[in-house]
Amino acid sequence: MGKGKLAKFADMAEYPHVFEYPYSQVADTPCEMKGNWNRDFFKNEHPIVLELGCGRGEYTVGLARRYTDKNFIGVDIKGARMWTGAKEAFDEGLKNVAFLRTNIEIIDRFFAPGEVSEIWLTFSDPQMKKVTKRLTSTYFMERYRKFLVPDGLVHLKTDSNFMFTYTKYMVEVNHFPVEFVTDDLYHSGLDDDILRIRTYYEQQWLDRGLSIKYIRFRLSQTGELQEPDVEIELDDYRSYNRSKRSGLQTSK
């Protein structure tokens, strides 16, 4: 029988590579790890890569296995799901992976300027109703700017046409340099070891015939950010673990 939530939370509290900061706990208190992740935890100066909304942590762990010259931190608020990746990393003795359990809305409280080199957004909820909740919105780009290195990389991998289309518009209106973009990743011809990592839900979507979209761009540190003023057709399918969002046909 699998572990229940309480048992998983108990494990998480004991794992040395898991850091838990509920919103209320850090509202007025600075995080002691901010600016000190390499020195105090990883014990090296390798680049730090974040996976925001890491879910089960499959991508975080997969990246850490392949790239021992980088440090990876998976971030999510749902500890019971994160436990899967945290346990794998612990059992395998991976030294270049950590997990941060907190709200992504306050992610800039945990990292100092220039402390992070890349951000991965893997199958984030498209948040079709509210732009400020989308992890590729300018609301979040402003936060990412506070800790990403100049022109740091942002990767988006998604099954959502809405999320992909919105992000392309956001990147275009803000003139962010795009390194690669495709609306059908596994038929794009891109030969990249990173992109061979497939999460559990990604495989389910592929099995349903849904194409996976991907965009990689650089986030500049200068200039006032602008939200794209466009209408985008809503996704018309029920993705795994997502309910149908709205009866509307388009959204800004």
TrEMBL record:
List of residues binding S-adenosyl-L-methionine: E51, D76, N103, D125
Enzyme class, first EC level, given as a word: transferase
Enzymatic reactions: guanosine(46) in tRNA + S-adenosyl-L-methionine = N(7)-methylguanosine(46) in tRNA + S-adenosyl-L-homocysteine
GO molecular function: tRNA (guanine(46)-N7)-methyltransferase activity
EC number(s) per entry: 2.1.1.33
Keywords: Methyltransferase, S-adenosyl-L-methionine, Transferase, tRNA processing
Pathway in which this enzyme or protein is active: tRNA modification; N(7)-methylguanine-tRNA biosynthesis
Residues noted as binding substrate in the record, renumbered to the chain: K129, D159, T199, Y200, Y201, E202
Entries under Gene3D superfamilies matching the protein: Vaccinia Virus protein VP39
Pfam families, per the entry: Methyltransf_4
Function: Catalyzes the formation of N(7)-methylguanine at position 46 (m7G46) in tRNA.
Family named by the database record: Belongs to the class I-like SAM-binding methyltransferase superfamily. TrmB family.
UniProt-listed HAMAP family: tRNA_methyltr_TrmB
Protein name: tRNA (guanine-N(7)-)-methyltransferase
Originating organism: Phocaeicola intestinalis
Origin organism lineage: Bacteria, Pseudomonadati, Bacteroidota, Bacteroidia, Bacteroidales
